[in-house]
Amino acid sequence: MKEESERILAPGGAPRVAASSYLNTAPLIWSFARGRRRGEVELLTDTAPARCADMLARGQVEAALVPVIEYQRLPETAIVPGVCVGARREVHSVVLVTRGVRLEEVESIALSVESRTSAALIEVICREFLGRAPRLEQAEPDLGRMLARHDAALVIGDPAMTFERRDLRVYDMAALWREHTGLGFVFAMWMAHESAARAVRAIDFAGARDEGLASVEEIVDVYERELRRPREELVRYLTRNIAFELDGELAAGLELFFRLAHKHGVIETLRPLKFVGTDVDKTSG
What we know:
five-stranded mixed β-sheet; 12 helices; single chain; D-Maltodextrin-Binding Protein, domain 2
């Protein structure tokens, strides 16, 4: 499940679906890759959430697990309801790292090219809650090189869980958001082209999630060897850190994030939430 652009092919005509291969997405795609729904979709996995957004934008897939900020940048998309990758408190795998510099003193930040929502979140937190506008620069996700040129570095996904933290100051981005808003944060959701709404609506993303969450021990069997982290840490991550269901609090956090991103010019327009199976049906026939 971890190879870039791995393809688990479905029979001809099956919807094409893309998702990153990070641990935090595993419960959402396990059913399609290895469970009861294997073969129902053509599943493409990649190590970078940003590239999944690009695949959706280019029409290479009908649906993708996409950084949520991209919903505001892809006007012909809709959100699959109910399923997400979020966090109510600490997320553990989206962090801002400094060599002891306090967040309030940071002048420049290296942003992993793999991130889009988390990069926007940093900008929103700095501008809205800290009254600061540090210099932001995209960089390859190499923590040592990032910190050699910048005061701070954004690291996401599995790499954010595995680096040596000694002598570093680490800020959990979901915890920072909750500290300032009292709300949880949504990092990614399934999205689809409006023109593909009928096909995507037939995919049971919620059922796939439920099977994945019931298979946490099997998922950890795979990632424990790859990430070389204690088993109990990985189980806790999937069952306590990450939230996979969009409830009222997470939805409120999502809408506030969009409003603040628009307020500070991170996104140019502010679209209302449009869900597959509701508003989409009015335009997709």
